[in-house]
Each structure stands twice: as structure tokens, then as C-alpha cells.
Amino acid sequence: MRPLVIAIDGPAGAGKSTIAKALATALGIEYLDTGAMYRGVTYEVLRRGLEATDVDAVARVARDVRFEQTANSLHVNGDDATAAIRTPAVDAAVSHVAANSAVRSELRERQRQWIAERGGGVVEGRDIGSVVFPDATLKVYLMASPRVRAQRRVAQHGGDVDEIARAITERDERDSTRDDSPLRQMPDAVVVDTSERSIDAVVAHIRELIVARTELS
Q1: Coil vs helix vs strand at 105
Q2: Which of 105, 123, 207, 216 is deepest in the core (most CB within 10 A)?
Q3: Structural domains of the chain ordered from first start
């Protein structure tokens, strides 16, 4: 029997983590934030004083790093990095780390192993439905306008909306144009715009899609 894999993709600030976490709770299955893994590697790269653009050194960090990850926390080599991976320094460097093909290869294997060990789960990121789990039970692509996404970030962490909106647009460009596993909407993904919808409404909609998909299969 194929594992139940719900792939949640989309750009930064579209609500992936919030929706994926709530959906996993509603379904009674586990949740994996793959973006936190890339941020965890970035955190360790910076902690060691390395340059995020040093391809070989960053690849070595990705192969060696140890994660202990839950729905609400991330420990990197035994250190609680839950808050540290959301700092501006990590924000500025993570796109370089995520563009490293050796890093992506290493973390993809860890993500597939995570699903194999649990027999399924809700997995969110930017290449889950396209590369990591192309045969996922359901692929969902979450989206929202850059300004809405910026307003959400300001509500959580403060800052200037216009400045953050520009940074988000630049991040989208980097993520969608990188050579390895770019951010893209798959033809078989269901697109859900979260701009004007509540968390509960989005989760309820996705649950309906899962029921329909599993009944058809």
C-alpha cells in the first residue's frame, strides 16, 4: 500500500508551514518542514564561519550535520536552532545553500527516508511535488501576493512591508531560476490562494481534496 504523502509547495510566506502543520494535526499524521532543514544547514555553515557560496564546504556540512526535528523545533548538532534559523543572517544566505546541488541531493534522501520510516506524512517545501515525491498522493501549491506575504511576515517579526515585499520577490526569483530543483507549480498540483482565506478554510478544502483523491484511487 502506497504511503499517504501530501506535498505542500509554494513560495516563501504563502502559508506552507502553518497550513501543513494544521493539516497534519487534522489528519493525525506527522509533518516535515523541509525548509527548516535547509535553514539548519545554513545555520551550521554560518556558525562555522564559512561562506554560503563555498560549494564544497557547504556540501560537507550538509553531509555531516545532525538534525533532531519536530513540528515546532529544530536542533542542529545538539543545539536548539529553532529561533536562530529565522534570523536575517540565515534569511540572506539560505538561497545560496539551497541552490547547492550536493546539499539538495543529501537532504532529498533524508526526506524520503523520513517518509519511509513513518509510512507517510505532510511534507512542505519548494520541490516536494516536483522532485522529492513526484508520486505524492496529493500535490498542493499554495500562493499569495508578495504584499500579503510581506504583511504576514511583518505581523510575526516586524519590519517594513515594502522592504520585505521586495525581498520576497527577489527570493522568488532566485528560487524559481536556480538550476537544481527550482520552485515551480506542477501541472497536477492543486493551486490554493491563501490571500483571503483562513487557515481553517484552507485546511478543510485540502482535506476534501484528499478524500476525493483517495476515494478515486
Answers
A1: helix
A2: 123
A3: 4-216 (3.40.50.300)
**What pTM did the predictor assign?**
0.89
Q: Residue range 47-76: average pLDDT?
A: 97
Residue 175 pLDDT: 84
Q: Angle at Cα 205 formed by Cα 199 and Cα 211, nearest 5°?
A: 135
If you average pLDDT over residues 101-112, what whole number do you get? 97
DSSP, residue by residue, 141-204: EEE--HHHHHHHHHHHH---HHHHHHHHHHHHHHHHH-SSS-----TTSEEEE-TT--HHHHHH
Among candidates 135, 146, 131, 188, which has minimal Cα distance to 3?
A: 135
> Residue type for 145, please?
S
Give the residue from 74, 72, 77 showing the smallest Cα distance to 25.
Answer: 72
